[in-house]
């Protein structure tokens, strides 16, 4: 999917690992490049999508989504677990384009709804979600499956 000004939204591949590692590190989520490449390859085999926004260099944006069946809807739900745009590239419509591509991928997979996980302290992301049609449905709690100290 190509958009205005040469910006391309496409599926991420292991070749994108260095740029994605840099993008995530800038957001405080450091990951080494070989591990990133392995995860991208593994995720291509799962029910979901990893999409990037790229122009003439490393990715400037990323959306990761997974779909899964639920008991309350006959169609799967798509869940966005990561939506990130490089700080210097924000306010250019990249987030909206990534969201549009994610919604299309979810529709193609037969999903009936799209949900996005956003921490309460992520006020700019929450405002973006409201502006793009998301509604608050409550909060989520998570916990590690590893013992403390492991």
Overview of the structural elements:
With 150 residues, this protein is an alpha+beta fold. The chain has a single domain, classed as Aminopeptidase. The protein is 30% helix and 21% strand. It is built from four helices and five strands; from the N terminus they run E-H-H-E-E-E-H-E-H. It has helices at 17-26, 33-43, 94-108, 123-131, and strands spanning 8-11, 48-54, 61-68, 77-85, 113-116. A five-stranded mixed beta sheet has the order 1-2-3-4-5, with helices on both faces. A hairpin with an 8-residue loop joins strand 3 (61-68) and strand 4. The relative contact order is 0.14. Keywords: Acyltransferase, Transferase. InterPro entries: Acyl_CoA_acyltransferase, Bact_Acetyltransf, GNAT_dom. Residues 7-150 form the N-acetyltransferase domain. Pfam families: Acetyltransf_1.
Keywords:
alpha+beta; acyltransferase; 5-stranded mixed β-sheet; transferase; 4 helices; Aminopeptidase; Bact_Acetyltransf; 21% strand; 150 residues; GNAT_dom
Q: What is the rounded Rg? A: 16 Å
Mean pLDDT: 83
The span between the termini is: 42 Å
Name the structural class.
alpha+beta
| SSE pattern, N- to C-terminal | EHHEEEHEH
Sheet with most strands: 5 strands, mixed
How many discrete domains? 1
- Gross geometry: globular
Please give the share of residues in helix: 25-40%
Cross-sheet strand order for the largest sheet: 1-2-3-4-5
User: How big a fraction of the residues is strand?
Assistant: 15-25%
Count, helices: 4
Name of the CATH first level: Alpha Beta
Name the CATH superfamily assignment.
Gcn5-related N-acetyltransferase (GNAT)
Domain N-acetyltransferase: 7-150
Pfam families: Acetyltransf_1 (PF00583)
Protein name: GNAT family N-acetyltransferase
InterPro entries: Acyl_CoA_acyltransferase, Bact_Acetyltransf, GNAT_dom
């Amino acid at each position: 999917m190509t958009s205005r000004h040469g910006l391309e939204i496409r599926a991420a591949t292991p070749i994108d690992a260095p740029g994605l590692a840099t993008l995530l590190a800038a957001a405080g989520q450091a990951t080494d490049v070989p591990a990133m490449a392995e995860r991208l390859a593994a995720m291509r085999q799962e029910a979901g999508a990893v999409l990037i926004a790229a122009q003439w260099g490393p990715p400037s944006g990323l959306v990761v989504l997974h779909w899964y069946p639920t008991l309350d809807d006959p169609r799967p739900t798509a869940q966005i677990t990561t939506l990130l745009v490089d700080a210097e590239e924000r306010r250019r419509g990249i987030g909206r384009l990534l969201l549009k591509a994610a919604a299309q991928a979810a529709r193609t997979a037969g999903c009936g709804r799209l949900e996005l996980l956003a921490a309460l302290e992520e006020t700019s992301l929450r405002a973006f979600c409201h502006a793009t049609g998301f509604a608050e449905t409550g909060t989520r709690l998570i916990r590690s499956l590893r013992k403390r100290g492991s």
